[in-house]
Each structure stands twice: as structure tokens, then as C-alpha cells.
Design goal:
about 15% strand; cytoplasm; LRRC14/PRAME; LRC14 protein; 15 strands; 17 helices; Leucine-rich repeat, LRR (right-handed beta-alpha superhelix); two-stranded antiparallel sheet; repeat; LRR_dom_sf
Length: about 475
């Protein structure tokens, strides 16, 4: 429910132009204008922003992707207002602007590089940056006569301070060129892009290297290389360039070498070289290797890391019992807050090593993902005592396993004693399926009536427990697992 202050703010931003407003109301007015999709009000607010900083995420909260996005116009309105401010400061250096904005923080704003569902804020900001830089150069070439002959110090004094924009870069072949051009302006332009995160998709290794070399090394915290279909040679072309980012905390490398049916001696050597390069990243705390084939080689990936990981995602990595045993005995285990082992066949020799690993991680673990792990009732019952030792656990993902209603109810009752547990994603119970025959083919399909009954029973158990903060759902997409890591 909206606060009275927000309700009043929504009435105010419905007006255009906005009335003169006290500075302390600007944050709530910005929130109201953004949530209500009022780009003209946002332009007025940014044009007179009375503070040196504007943080999107603090003002409007967590933003999701929308297929029908009323907020694209709002984001573009903020960018447009900032461009108007900077152009005026270039053209009228003596003008006393009411806008005090020096830092625009757009980290966490949804982005879509191919613009199929949402606007590309990366592309929009890069375009604005390039156009402002060109305008600055053109204006300086045709500066009025009274400014000609100014000393270097006087010229610098005429240079407006500009705006630093913190942003999560989302780059593909459509936005690569304009972003590269924008980054070449660096500190000389009035609009300076500083990437906190770098997400690339469908780009060559050489293009990624070129882009990384253009980024400000002091800002980058996260790198995500997605759907690039690399092997180890391409990865080893990129990794040495990451060591120039001293604050890099999170690295996501998906599907490396996934198309090789068997590890060759060359790929095994590549894994060891990758481990050595990862060891050069002194601030690394999160590593995601989803879909990267690593059977028997996890030790080579992790052994050169200088400090302990807090998040390790190893979904569909074809790990062997020896890999989990190594991890349970490694110094990373007691520090893990997030662990994802989805896609592994736990009953095939991984159950005991997993128990050992969870015991070692129990004091720190917040997030555990075991989706599609071939878990049956007996395996979950064996793991339950270990789950209960994870006293800080907040998220448990069990979707895609063959579990009965009875064992899920037991899990619910037992895990009520975990005070911080907030979200459990469970599979539709196996007894909620019925056998259907289609000609000569038979298969299992969901019995909607049984699913409805089971869902109601679980909801009733939760209601009876008084744990209104605890969510159980069989829809893995209905709730986003929280991000526990602040970069």
C-alpha cells in the first residue's frame, strides 16, 4: 500500500509544468513520476535536480524487465533532460543552472541490447555521450570571438564539470560500435560513462577484449560473458585483460567448452590455464561457471584463487564426487553464501560429498540451489538433517526433482525452525501426475485437481505455522531469488 506522501506526490506529478517545489520533496516526486510513467514530469525534475547525485535504484527500487514497458519513455526522458542541461552549460558557461546533478547512478536499470522487449539504456546513453562530445568540439571550434585568445586556465574555467554516469553495460553487436565510440571520449566529454558491470552476448573474444580495454579500470565490479560459445582458447584470450580491474568481484562464464563431448589433453591444459588466470583476480568473490564441463577438474579452477569465494554456481558442470570432496575440504567452503549445483545426478555418488560440503558451509550458506538433481524422497530425507544445520538459509531451490507430497510436507514442517528461510521453490509432487495413453505412447501429465489440492494443503500448513514471511511456490519464475551480494 502506498504511503500518504507517495499518494500526494502522484497528484503533484500529474500536473505540467510542475509547480516550484522544496528540495526535500524531489526524491518522492521522482519515484512517483517514474512509477506512474510521466516522462514530462521527470524531465522537469531532472532539469532542476537540487542534489549532486541521483540514484535510480534508491528512488524507485528493484526494476524488472517488462514486455510492455511504460518505463522506457521515462528512462529516455531522464537522459534527454541531462543532455539538455549539459548542452546549455556548454553554450552558456555563465548560466547559473538550477540543476546541481553531477553523478547519475543508473546501475540496476533493466537493459535489452537488441531492444526486443525493452529499451537499451546502454545504447541510449552511449549515443547521448557521443552526440554531446561532438557538440562540445563543434562549439569550441566556433566559440564566440570574446572567448578567443583565452589562456589555458581561463579555458579550463569555462569547461563545465559535466556528469558522471554509473551504468551496467549490456553490449552486443548492435550496441558495440556506439559504446566503443562513447568510451573513447573518456574524461574529456561532458558526459562520462563509468561501467559498474559489463554484460556481453554474442560477441567475439577480440571484440570483448577491445571493449574491456576501453573501460575505466577503477569502476568495474562484475563481468558476465553470455552465449558466446567460447572454448578455452577464446576464454584465455579474454581473462588476462580482467586483471586490470582491481575491484572485479563477480565473474560469470557460461557454457565454456560445452560442445566438446570429451575433455581432450588440450582442453585439460586450458582448464589449468584458466585457473591460473582466475588466480590473478585478487578481489573475486563470485564465480559462475554454469554449463562449463569440469568433470574432475574443479581443483584446477579454484586452486590459485587468493581469497575465499562467497558465491559459487556450478550448475550442469558434470562434476564428479572428487570435485565435491575437494570443495568440501577447500577453504572456500566455510565462506560460501550461495551454492548452485543444479543439473547434477546427486544419487550417482554425489550424495555423501554433498552432505560434507553442506556441513562445511552450514554457518554461512544463505542460498542453495539443487534444481534437476534427480533427488527422490530417500535422498531428500538423507539431506534434511544437513539442511537444518544451515541456520542462516534464506533460499532453497528443489524444482525439477521427483518428490512426493508427503516428503515435501515433512520438509516444510521441519524447515520452519530455520528463522531466515524466506523462499522455497519446490517441484510439483510426483503423486500429482497421472498416466495418459496417446495411441501406443504413454506418459505422465499433471493432474490439475491434485495440484490444486496439494497447493492448498501447503498454503494451509504455512498459515497454521504463522510464518507469513515464508513463501513456498512450485513456479520457479514467480519469485526472483534475492541478491545477497552488494557490489
Amino acid at each position: 500500500m502506498d504511503s500518504l506522501l507517495l499518494l500526494c506526490a502522484r497528484r503533484v506529478v500529474a500536473q505540467h509544468p510542475l509547480p516550484t517545489l522544496p528540495a526535500h520533496l524531489y526524491p518522492v516526486l521522482f519515484q512517483a513520476a517514474f512509477l506512474d510513467g510521466r516522462p514530462l514530469a521527470l524531465q522537469d525534475l531532472v532539469a532542476t535536480w537540487p542534489f549532486p547525485e541521483l540514484h535510480f535504484k534508491r528512488l524507485v527500487g528493484h526494476l524488472e524487465r517488462w514486455s510492455d514497458d511504460p518505463f522506457s519513455d521515462c528512462i529516455n526522458a531522464v537522459i534527454h533532460a541531462m543532455v539538455v542541461k549539459l548542452r546549455r552549460e556548454l553554450e552558456e558557461p555563465d548560466h547559473q543552472s538550477r540543476c546541481q546533478l553531477l553523478v547519475l547512478d543508473m546501475t540496476g536499470v533493466p537493459d535489452d541490447p537488441d531492444e526486443s522487449c525493452f529499451c537499451s539504456s546502454t545504447k541510449a546513453l552511449a549515443t547521448a555521450c557521443v552526440e554531446l562530445s561532438k557538440h562540445q568540439q563543434e562549439f569550441q571550434r566556433h566559440r564566440p570571438e570574446q572567448h578567443n585568445g583565452c589562456s589555458g586556465a581561463a579555458t579550463a574555467a569555462l569547461q563545465p564539470p559535466g556528469v558522471d554516469v554509473l551504468i551496467d553495460f549490456h553490449v552486443d553487436k548492435n550496441s558495440y560500435e556506439i559504446l566503443y565510440d562513447a568510451l573513447q571520449t573518456r574524461a574529456a566529454g561532458p558526459l562520462r560513462l563509468k561501467g559498474r558491470e559489463f554484460h556481453s552476448q554474442y560477441m567475439s573474444a577480440s571484440s570483448i577484449v577491445t571493449m574491456l580495454e576501453s573501460l575505466d579500470p577503477s569502476c568495474l565490479r562484475r563481468v558476465d560473458l553470455f552465449c558466446n560459445f567460447f572454448g578455452y582458447p577464446e576464454l584465455l584470450e579474454i581473462l588476462p585483460h580482467l586483471s586490470r580491474f582491481p575491484e572485479l568481484r563477480s565473474l560469470k562464464l557460461q557454457d565454456i567448452g560445452m560442445y566438446a563431448r570429451n575433455l581432450t589433453p588440450e582442453s585439460a591444459n586450458g582448464i589449468q590455464d584458466v585457473g591460473r588466470q582466475l588466480g590473478m583476480l585478487s578481489s573475486l568473490r563470485e564465480l559462475n561457471l554454469t554449463g562449463t564441463l569440469l568433470p574432475g577438474n574443479l581443483s584446477h579452477i579454484l586452486c590459485d584463487l587468493k581469497d575465499r569465494l562467497e558465491s559459487l554456481e556450478l550448475a550442469f558442470c558434470s562434476l564428479l564426487p572428487a570435485d565435491l570432496t575437494f570443495l568440501s575440504q577447500n577453504f572456500h567452503a566455510p565462506a560460501l553464501k550461495r551454492l548452485d549445483l543444479s543439473g547434477h545426478n546427486i544419487p550417482q555418488g554425489l550424495l555423501e560429498p554433498l552432505q560434507l560440503l553442506l556441513e562445511e558451509s552450514s554457518a554461512s550458506l544463505l542460498h542453495l540451489e539443487l534444481t534437476d538433481c534427480h533427488l527422490a524422497d530417500s535422498h531428500l530425507e538423507a539431506l534434511l538433517p544437513t539442511f537444518l544445520r544451515c541456520s542462516r538459509l534464506r533460499f532453497l531451490g528443489l524444482y525439477g526433482n521427483s518428490l512426493s507430497t508427503a516428503v515435501l510436507k515433512n520438509l516444510l514442517q521441519k524447515t520452519l525452525e530455520l528463522p531466515d528461510l524466506h523462499l522455497v521453490v519446490y517441484p510439483i509432487p510426483k503423486d500429482c501426475y497421472r498416466l495418459e495413453l496417446w495411441g501406443s505412447v504413454q506418459g505422465l501429465i499433471e493432474d490439475e485437481d491434485l495440484v490444486t489440492v496439494t497447493t492448498a494443503e501447503i498454503s494451509q500448513l504455512l498459515a497454521n505455522s504463522g510464518r507469513t514471511d515464508l513463501v513456498w511456490t512450485d513456479n520457479p519464475d514467480s519469485h526472483e531469488a534475492p541478491d545477497y551480494f552488494s557490489l
